[in-house]
Design goal:
Elements (H helix, E strand, L loop, with lengths): L5 H6 L9 E5 L4 E3 H17 L7 E5 L4 H13 L2 E4 L6 H11 L3 E4 L4 H10 L4 E4 L7 H6 L16 E7 L7 E6 H14 L11 E4 L6 H13 L3 E4 L5 H7 L5 E4 L1 H8 L14 E4 L6 H11 L4 E6 L3 E5 L16 E2 L4 E5 L12 E6 L6 E2 L3 H7 L6 E9 L5 E6 L4 E3 L2 E3 L1 H10 L3 E11 L3 E10 L7 H9 L10 E5 L12 H8 L6
Parallel strand pairs: 1-10, 3-4, 3-5, 5-6, 9-10, 9-11, 11-12, 12-13, 24-25
Antiparallel strand pairs: 1-2, 7-8, 8-18, 13-14, 14-15, 16-17, 17-19, 19-20, 21-22, 23-24
The structure holds malonyl-coenzyme A and adenosine monophosphate.
Amino acid sequence: MSHSNLYAALRAGFPANLDSTAVETDVGLHYSWRDLERASAMLANLLHSLDLPPASRIAVQVEKSVEALMLYLATLRTGHVFLPLNTAYQSAEIEYFIGDAQPAVVVCSGKNFGWVSKLAFKAGTQNVFTLNDDRTGSLLERAVHCSDQHAAVQRGSDDLAAILYTSGTTGRSKGAMLTHGNLLSNAQVLKDYWGWRPQGEGADVLIHALPIFHVHGLFVAIHGALLSGSKMLWMARFEPKQVVAWLPRATVFMGVPTLYVRLLAEPTLTRETCRQMRLFVAGSAPLLLETFKHWQERTGHTILERYGMSETAMLTSNPYLAADGPRRGGTVGLPLPGVGLRVQDEAGQPLPPGEIGGIEVRGPNVFPGYWRMPEKTAQEFTADGWFKTGDVGKIDEHGYVHIVGRSKDLIISGGYNVYPAEIEGYLNELPGVAESAVVGVPHPDFGEVGVAVVVAKPDAQPDADALLASLKARLANFKIPKRCFVVPELPRNTMGKVQKNLLRDKYAGLFAG
Ligand code: MLC
Ligand code: AMP
């Protein structure tokens, strides 16, 4: 049966025994498949009772919880559009997202209700609910009175399911619009390609350790488990000891490279703890070859690295089956079935294998565009309809894709994207700052972190730590550069452009080892 509403498709993957456990949490709660079905129906009925216009945005900034997952499912069921927001975002960031997306509903943590509701009401949002990670809050209080039966609203595959905001190299953050068709096609491809084991005896068990406001934790992990009727072992925050304790009961784990680095620091991670495991997936940032090899030595398992983006969900994957080829460390594998991937030069001409250029993609997983930014969308697609990823790479003689850099000025820190332009914009506004440059340098835990280099105004003597403290009051914590240097001038080329490569080289060893 084909389902255009993503929820209906996921629901079709639930096991026949709805009373079996779907989610077990790190605080010992058990949720059955029936609980997911009924509670998301109640939340869907609550949304329905609000009489919202079709395709309303439901903006959600809450701590990770199974109830937050239910709210996601409820949003899909009603045909509204899920808009998850990183819990680290502060008021200026949230104000922008709410102003831009104009959500009909905002759901936030009780502790943030004061400031979030103020921003939401100012932007014209009429419904603000709270949802806490201990199953309290006005959202659940209201939903408890709603029916637990709900038929998923019909949706076409081109209808919007979610908007994920990604910062921009210049100016405003962009909301990547993802459709039911984008997400479902990608979930189905990954279900087959990674050999998710269907419900019942021998079914997969996924350790879910990632946040649920990004592609990796929300779509790749959750869709995979739901579509195959697999149980999830669910942790609110990544905790390496808890992961190792769960490994003997699990078969699948997904993480950004930082999670693997931190797990390797646990002496209790051994071949024995991983004996049941069938698949370790890494992505969202480059996995160092050193981590890949170290993992192989310690656990006997070869990490499968894959590559994706908010705008496209998953694009490439190292092979799951040995028959399809080896998993090659330092590469992101082969384009997934149905995904077109090419490497072009700056003039838009295709490059032969081995040559480095811009990575462009197309396929049913590629988003239709950025929310209310038709011009930006047009710029990011080629005339013949391929999406320009902003990643720079090559395809080797075996057909494997290598990412060697980025044409977008972007730092990926612990799997979170940080755009230097945004940080520089804030720094340049601070008293005593004439100009600034933020660059990414290697870091043993986060892979890469930001370093700020600041030039003072004449006669001013800004204090580096005080500058960072000022940023901290305004921006999500993971965006704050880990170090700041006040220097007499920034290196520039003859065109006057700041030579960030020289700064990167200069500070490359700052966190070595
Ligand atoms: C936390 N900190 C970070 C950071 N995370 N600094 C830089 N980069 C990060 N990613 C800092 C905080 O600012 C804080 O500093 C200190 O570390 C402790 O904060 P914390 O919240 O307690 O950190 P922790 O729980 O240890 O978080 C680390 C982490 C987390 C690795 C578990 O960052 C994480 O869950 N990352 C995963 C991100 C993710 O899911 N990405 C997928 C994107 S999807 P201070 O100074 O304030 O104390 C995508 C597409 C695709 O990219 O292909 O998948
Ligand atoms: P986001 O916009 O948060 O979805 O981040 C997407 C970006 O993460 C991509 O454009 C890549 O630059 C990067 N990325 C994702 N997976 C990988 C990977 N396996 N290796 C290197 N970079 C990756």
